[in-house]
Every structure is written in structure tokens, then in C-alpha cells.
Amino acid sequence: MGRKVTIKDIAEMTQTSKTTISFYLNGRYEKMSQETRDKIQKVIEETGYKPSIVARSLNSKQTKLIGVLIGDITNSFSNQIVKGIENIAHRRGYQVIIGNSNYDPESEDRYIENMLRLGVDGFIIQPTSNFRKYAKISQETKKSLVFFDSQLYEHRSNWVKTNNYDAVYDATQICIQKGYEEFIIITADTSLLSTRIERASGFMDALTDYNLSYATYIIEDAKTTVEDIAGFLKNTIIPNKKTLVFAPNCWALPRVFTALKNIQTPKMDIGLIGFDNTEWTDLSSPSITTIVQPAFQEGEQATKILIDQIEGLDQEERQQVLNCHINWRESTQIKEV
Fold first, then answer.
1. Do residues 172 and 157 share a domain?
2. Which of 55, 25, 51 is nearest to 40 (CA)?
3. 2 in a domain, yes or no?
4. Domain tally for the chain?
5. Which residue in 32, 207, 209, 319 could disulfide with 36, CB within 3.0 to 4.6 Å?
6. Are residues 313 and 282 in the same domain?
């Protein structure tokens, strides 16, 4: 057969109906005999037929489609999240549509609208700061939503996140005990994401508990250059003072690292700690201490929660916090006097 095999072809070749084939493809075997099942399976194997999403949902309200919205698809954390989502989705017979919102609420709205037109069964979202709209989406569309990387405080919801605050607090406390005297945080605008608030708060609270102060530099993804960061650091770092720099945004860590390399002098004792980026931080010189999130597992857990809700297996709100680990490397080793 030169053209692509369709569900109609399979029905004709097995002398059944398109509805019966659709039941078979969706695992609804109670409406057919074992002989019919075996016949359909044999023809599908012989023709190499691969069902489309539309065919599989012919007699079902489900499309087996999941809409995934990510703030920034370019970093390693997001890549691992997507791998975890796809691992569970494919295992349970779902396909994934991915959108990159760039943390822009308008872009996020467009993606959600387009995904709804495609008939997605539910969403996995890394949310922006406008949390109220998600409750509205859930109520109006009756679609299940699961959030990752952020906890929504303004309404009950399903979410999976990591213990950002505790991980940063613990890492900062250990660095204080190592002997660091001055502290700097270089961060993106914390108002956009609850994750950013948690990371900054973990750093600041650990210092406050030790009666220590810190300097802050707010950076923008597209606008702040390595030269900008280097200029700030050069004007802020006090020579001969053990200084710890914290870069909580994984996309910013390479810029901060490069800026530090550009201004480093023998009189400076500068420590650096960031988030994720393990694909290069172990290989840099010096290697960089990072707080590493279990991103793959986070994606898996979010997908399990969503599909269970789509399929009616669990209708209770579910929240889960996964533990980060600290990857201690050369960048936080105090110089011996």
C-alpha cells in the first residue's frame, strides 16, 4: 500500500468498524472478543500502522496531549525537566507540546490559548508571577494544571518544586563557617518567580542570622553584560577580604564567572556559588560549587500527578518538595594564608 495506512483501512482489513479499532487503540478491550483483538493486532503489525492522536481520541474525550510551558528552554535545568516529563508521558501513552514563555506573561497567555485550541488534556507550567490567572484557566477550561519550580501561594494547586530556600540557607551557612567575611548576591528580578524569592531569601536570612551584611546587584537577562557585572564587582569587592559571590540564576552564572575571571587579582580571595550548570561547572578552572536540583525527577513527578488527574485516578491537590544537593568544588575553597 503506497499511501499511509489509516484507521479506516485497518477496519476494512479486519472486517470491523472504525469505532472498534479506536476502542482497541485506547485499550478498551471489554467491547471485543480475544479473537478480534488478535486479528487487529496482527494487521497493525503487518501494515506497520501508527495511530494518530486524532484517531486514538475518536471515541474519547482525551487527546493524549499535554501542554508544557517553560520559562527558559535553553538551560540544563529545563532540558532535564523536559526529559523527565517525556519519560513518563511516553510511558503512559501521552505526547507533549512544549512552549518557551521566556517568563513573559503575554507569551505565556498565547501559548496556553493555542494549546487549548489543540485540545490538550492538561498543562505542566513553570509559572510567571501572575498566579490568579491560573485558577481562572483551571475553572473555565476544566483542565488539570500542575506547576513546577514554583509554589503558588494564592490558591490551592498541584505543584512540584525543590527545597530552594533550605538548600541556599545551608550552603550559605557552611560558607560563613568556612570564613567568608563579605557577601554579594547577583540576581535577576526576584518578583517574577517565587523560586527567585526563595533563593534570595535563603541567602539573606542565613547572613542576617549571623549579623552579616551583603551587597546586591540586579541583572537583566538580555541587557546586563559581563562588563557590567565586572564593573560592579570591581567597585564592590574589598581586596584581602574573603568574599563570597552568589549567582542564583543558572543562565547568569557563566557571565558572573567570566566577570570574576576578568577582575581577579592575587590580592582577591573570592568564592563563587551558583545553581545547576553541571555540564560545565565541573570542568571549569576553578571548578564551581553549585546547588543542583533533581530536575529529571521533578519533571517525572509533575507528569505523574497530571496524568493521574486527567485519568481520574487522583483528584486531590498534590504538592511535593524534592531535595537539592550541594556540589562542593574548588570555587568555595578558602585560600590558605
1. no
2. 25
3. no
4. 3
5. 32
6. no
Domain span at 34: 7-56
What are 161's strand-pairing partners? Answer: 321
Between 104 and 162, residue with greater pLDDT:
162
Residues 28-39 as b or e (16 or more Cβ within 10 Å = b)? eeeebeeebeeb
pTM recorded for the entire structure: 0.77
Q: How far is Cα 38 from Cα 32, in angstroms, rounded to an integer?
A: 10
231 CB-contact burial (10 Å; exposed 0-12 / middle 13-18 / buried 19+): middle
pLDDT-based confidence at 55, cuts 50/70/90?
Answer: very low
Q: What is the number of other CB atoms lying within 10 angstroms of the CB of residue 170? A: 16
CA pseudo-torsion sign 53, 59, 64, 69: positive
**Bridge partner residues of 327 (DSSP):** 290
Cα 74 from chain centre? 11
Which is nearest to 332 in space by CA: 257, 279, 265?
257
pLDDT in tens, 278-303: 999 999 999 999 999 999 999 999 99
C-alpha cell at 203: 541567602
Given 38, 56, 74, the domain boundary residue is 56
* 8 Å CB contact between 295 and 77: yes
Residues 23 and 138 placed together within one structural domain of the fold: no
Tell me which residue of 212, 219, 206, 194 sits closest to 167, measured CA to CA: 206
Please give the helix or strand (H or E) that residue 255 lies within, else none.
helix 253-263
The grid coordinates listed for 53 are 492522536
Are residue 184 and residue 150 in the same domain, yes or no? no
- Residue 270 shares a structural domain with residue 226: yes
The sign of the dihedral angle between the CA atoms of 255, 257, 259, 261 is negative
Residue 1 falls inside a structural domain: no
Helix axis angle, 295-310 relative to 76-91, nearest 10°? 40
The CATH number given to whatever domain includes residue 70 is 3.40.50.2300
The answer on 209 and 139 residing in a single domain is: no
